[in-house]
Amino acid sequence: MKSNQEVMVFAEQREGEINSISYELLGKGREMADRLGGDLSSLLIGHEMADTAMELIYHGADRVYLYDHAIFRDLDLLNYKHNVVKLVREVKPEILLLGATHWGRSLGARVATALGTGLTADCTGLEIDHSGNFTQIRPAFSGNVLAHIRTKTKPQMATVRYKVMKSLPRDTNRKGEIIRKNAEVVPSLLTIARKERLEEVNIADAEVIISGGAGLKKAEDFSLLADLAGLLGATVGSSRPPVDSSWIGKEHQVGFSGNTVKPKIYLACGISGSVQHLAGMRESDVIIAINTDPSAPIFKIADYGIVGDLYEVVPKLIEKIKRYRS
Questions:
Q1: pTM of the prediction?
Q2: What are the structural domains, with CATH classification, of the chain?
Q3: Distance of CA 301 to CAs 203, 218, 289, 305, Å?
Q4: Which residue, among 159, 152, 3, 181, has the nearest Cα to 91 in the 3D structure?
Q5: Is the dihedral of CA 169, 172, 175, 179 positive or negative?
Q6: Angle at the Cα of 24 from the Cα atoms of 58 and 110, rounded to 5 degrees
Q7: pLDDT tens profile 268-312
């Protein structure tokens, strides 16, 4: 696909509210477009989104392609994919960026397949060199190395993790163009699409995270952490071993090969603290660790450490919180 120098950012939204990762991508996209000497555009799909579209311009976009249709009140994956593919074929951007959310990963993979282009997933860095080459950086080999990848096919596509890019300050003086596009609905696919709607765990946005690791004995024991999370208004997270064992979904994974998080409180239960895991949560405001091994690496960065069995400590925490609230 012959392309121009346009950088396009897919703006993810839920119930009319732009996901913060979209603003982060616009911040990086603005930098990249300027280096390429091209424009920065954003693609927004939803229902009754005209006012919200201006926010994308305030955060760096030169133009917004807006698909506004009642079909998009729901997260209709196949119809989203159909319209994204149609626009990309029409506009031919050089680069297409999506957030590495549960939704963005699913949509991005389908779009890349339909376009016959490559896709670098879960990037933690994006660079444009002096020759205009686009390099995508992501962890590889369990996070032990950072792979630098260049895609020969166009558009060059990447999904990018939460909170690794910086959004630009909101500037209401910025001018831009909103281009309304006619949505194409694929009626024969509606039933299938609705079955594929995804409930996303926005762990990167959580202010309190209760994570479990290899110290858990079985998948059902995540319910213990869920009970504590429910009392604290927290989100349940995980290190890599439980995810690899299919005890919990990858959208809950924290670490180099999962999500980067910066909550106000991060409670690590039965997590030893591998380098890969620490890289994803060490910027948390307050880190609390529970582990039976006093020499576990997690204690080196923890603000508070409890040397003990999570199966004894967590139930006592739950009991004390309930007693305090009553």
A1: 0.70
A2: 7-195 (3.40.50.620), 203-325 (3.40.50.1220)
A3: 21, 27, 9, 9
A4: 3
A5: positive
A6: 110
A7: 999 999 998 998 899 899 999 999 999 999 999 999 999 999 999
